[in-house]
Write the structure tokens for this entry.
Amino acid sequence: MTQFSRLHKEQLRAVAEPIWKNIVEAAREQNYARFSRGFSNELLAKLSEEHFRQSCEDFPVLTSIEPDFEFIDSIHRENSITILWRLSSSKFEGEFLGQLTLQSGENGMEITAVSVN
């Protein structure tokens, strides 16, 4: 049993919301140091600062996510959990899906995946 399986949805939301808020704000500011705070070593190796900056340029929705995101649900696995968010953009119409995956790591909870679709 992992630390995530013991959390109720509202408790999980209370843990994940400040993490996601930081990611959204840092993406809007294009601040890689802040954006990558809490990333696992594996995710840091995959998402370098250069890759982050290129992604912001190629996918401007990343830098225009509105701060009023909505918690949708969570998907539990043995050692991790993915939290789903409903997003909107200040530049693009429609809704977007945000995904944040957290896993128990060497130094506590680590972010192992982040995406916006």
